[in-house]
Design goal:
The chain is of the alpha+beta class. The chain has helices at residues 30-46, 144-158, 197-210, 216-223, 227-237, 254-268, and strands at residues 22-27, 55-63, 69-77, 88-93, 102-107, 110-125, 178-181, 184-187, 214-215, 238-240, 249-252. The termini are far apart. InterPro entries: TFIIF_beta (IPR003196), TFIIF_beta_HTH (IPR040450), TFIIF_beta_N (IPR040504), TFIIF_interaction (IPR011039), WH-like_DNA-bd_sf (IPR036388), WH_DNA-bd_sf (IPR036390).
Length: 269
């Protein structure tokens, strides 16, 4: 009996016309990606062949922390798109830390290779520094929309999302407290359960209100969290000092320090 040959469809092939094209991979904050997606969905609903402008890429001359001039890319959101959120971002080149990557696209059911990532950037909210730079003693000015957003995140993280009910008799019948191996008794090791990220963030904020700097073992002792989970949540709101008198101690990021001070002033008024 003759074998039946499978039918080949051109749509199943991988289009490689642009596989060698050099691309930029730009990572933007979640609130920017969400706003862009909303604009694109609206353009699709209206049947627009070309959507509205989302942002402008600029090459500007800026000063580093030491006041030395340097060239950097900035991303400026369109006025209509960036209403209510930070609109100006600094693009930090992180290409040397990125793994080799290729970009693919689905074009009407046909998979196509769009190119390889040549440059990678991470966008951060721009901070304005007076003439002479921060080294000259000038105060760094944060974007007001970003300060508002940080304050909202702080308030949301501090809100209680669960309640605790205390029982009079917490003794569990038949629950072993030790494990016996041969003639030796070994205590059961304490298991650290992962806490909800928002609840853990609220606890960390309260700890930093007690004192500005903490070592990681101290924070882990007070939160009873697994090492990796605590590092991930802690890294969202705090930074670790790598040098100086407070080496290896964690403290809140500048934007959260500013937001907390403003919130205390509003409550006092």
């Amino acid at each position: 009996m003759a074998e039946q040959e499978e039918e080949w469809h051109p749509s199943e092939a991988l289009a490689t016309d642009h596989a060698a094209r050099k691309l930029w991979l730009v990572k933007v904050p979640a609130f920017v990606a969400k706003r862009w997606k909303t604009c694109c969905d609206q353009s699709v609903e209206r049947g627009e062949a070309v959507g509205r402008p989302l942002a402008t890429l600029r090459l500007v001359q800026a000063a580093d922390e030491g006041g030395q001039p340097r060239t950097q890319y900035q991303l400026q959101l369109d006025a209509a798109v960036g209403a209510g959120i930070p609109a100006e971002f600094v693009m930090k080149n992180t290409t040397k830390f990125a793994d080799p990557m290729l970009a693919f696209a689905d074009k009407g059911g046909e998979l196509a290779a769009e190119g390889k990532v040549w440059q990678k950037f991470d966008c951060e909210v721009a901070r304005k520094t007076p003439a002479g730079g921060a080294a000259a003693g000038g105060k760094v000015v944060l974007d007001p929309e970003y300060r508002k957003l940080s304050r909202q995140r702080h308030q949301a993280a501090a809100a209680k999302t669960r309640t605790v009910q205390y029982l009079q008799d917490t003794k569990l019948v038949g629950a072993p407290t030790t494990v016996q191996i041969g003639q030796k008794r070994k205590e059961v090791s304490e298991k650290r359960d992962r806490m909800d990220a928002r609840e853990l963030t609220a606890i960390l904020f309260r700890l930093f209100e007690k004192q500005p700097r903490w070592s990681f073992p101290q924070l882990q002792k007070d939160t009873h969290q697994p090492t990796q989970h605590l590092k991930e949540v802690l890294g969202e709101i705090a930074v670790k000092n790598l040098r100086g008198p407070y080496k290896d101690l964690w403290e809140l990021k500048k934007e959260y320090k500013t937001g907390g001070a403003e919130q205390q002033q509003e409550q006092a008024q």
